[in-house]
Amino acid sequence: ASEVSFPQEPPSWTFYTVQEGDTLWKIARLHQVKIDNLVKANELEKDRLYPGMTLRIPSPSGMN
User: Fold this and answer.
1) Domains of the chain
2) What's the gap between Cα 37 and its chain centre?
3) In the Cβ-directed half-sphere of 58, how many Cα atoms lie within 13 Å?
4) pLDDT (tens digit, 9 = 90+) per residue, 17-63?
5) Which residues have CB under 8 Å from 17's CB, separation 6+?
6) pLDDT band at 13 (very low <50, low <70, confident <90, very high)
7) pTM over 0.85
8) CA–CA separation, 8 vs 5, rounded Å?
9) How far is CA 20 from the centre of its chain?
10) Nearest 10 degrees: CA dihedral of 56, 51, 34, 57?
11) What is the reported pLDDT for 48?
12) Residue 46 pLDDT
């Protein structure tokens, strides 16, 4: 018998607009996700955030 595999469900995203004074640590803590997952989800370079930037926030279980 052959197994049928289904594509993995894409992670569900929440969107967050960066505010003045926000840090990756603060945003990750607020949304209960790992900083590494935020960086990967948004293809960030060197923690560069700026006010008005929109970040994709993966669901806490979506990107382990």
Assistant:
1) 13-58 (3.10.350.10)
2) 5
3) 19
4) 999 999 999 999 999 999 999 999 999 987 789 999 999 999 876 44
5) 52, 53, 54, 55
6) confident
7) no
8) 9
9) 19
10) -20
11) 85
12) 74
User: What distances in angstroms separate CA 12 from CA 4, 8, 28, 56, one per listed residue?
Assistant: 24, 12, 16, 9
Tokens, residue 29 = 């803590």
**Rounded distance between C-alpha atoms, residue 29 and residue 18, angstroms:** 14
* Structure-block tokens of residue 47: 């923690």
Calculate ∠ Cα 31-49-23, nearest 5°.
45
Residue 57, judged by CB atoms within 10 A of its CB (0-12, 13-18, 19+), counts as buried
